[in-house]
Specification:
7 strands, seven-stranded antiparallel β-sheet, 145 residues, disordered C terminus, alpha+beta
Length: 145
Amino acid sequence: MSQNAKLMPNLDEKSTKVLNLTVLQRIDPFVEEILITAAHVTLYEFNVDTSQWSRKDVEGSLFVVKRNAQPRFQFIVMNRRNTDNLVENLLADFEYEVQVPYLLYRNAAQEVNGIWFYNARECEDVANLFSRLIFYSIPLLRILI
């Protein structure tokens, strides 16, 4: 084997998911399941004053997770650029818009962010899951009113 050859683990999809779940549970012990994964995303933030987008220091794999505590659903970007991972709650008031390959959203702090997906299909899949999760986050009383 050449000196420059990289050793790549030969993990099947199930083993990879178990390994990823273990890593996520070290960060948040309430994570119980990975619902969907996007292999590579990059985060952008929108400056309302200048109407300009700028790249944040966050990129890596995105995981939408189910938790056994409140909030029940979150998305996490395991940051490859530094040790600060991005965690956002998926609550009933989570606002987002899809402009493939971007998913734009406003978080609880009213910041406008954009997620760029390397794989456009993953962008669509994550957005579809968001719509289902947010619907289920709406309290029953609000649906009946």
